[in-house]
Amino acid sequence: MDLTYLLTPLFAWTVAGSLKFFINSIKAKRLAFGLIGYGGLPSNHSAIVASTTMLIALKEGIAHPAFGVAITLSFIVILDASSLREQVGRQASRINSITNGSVLGEPKLRERMGHTPIEILAGVATGIAVAYAATTVGL
């Protein structure tokens, strides 16, 4: 069994998450454990699907049916990361403004949910780099 297809997306997630934590910590001027979650640079979701898609392209070729499935999945995930979660964030913002940030003692809803195009591109670049490294190193 070729574990590369399991390890590469896992490594892409780890690299993207570490980069996001490092970048958020620099921005916040403190360790950013509370800023872990949806949104931010780079997009973990984009890194994961890009690494899988690139790995299939490099190992199987773009004519392989698995590449078509992977590219389709990538588009779905990336569109979700940008547009759908952006709408969820807008709804959270409106709910927070209506309720003054508190509903029955619950904390304020998180408003930053989606990704900007730059955050998505950084995630895709991270995923591609990890897949390339995985095939070069020979995971």
UniProtKB/TrEMBL annotation:
Coiled coil: none annotated. It comes from Zwartia hollandica. The chain crosses the membrane at residues 6-23, 35-56, 62-81, 118-135. It holds the Pfam family DUF212. This is Divergent PAP2 family protein. Keywords: Membrane, Transmembrane, Transmembrane helix.
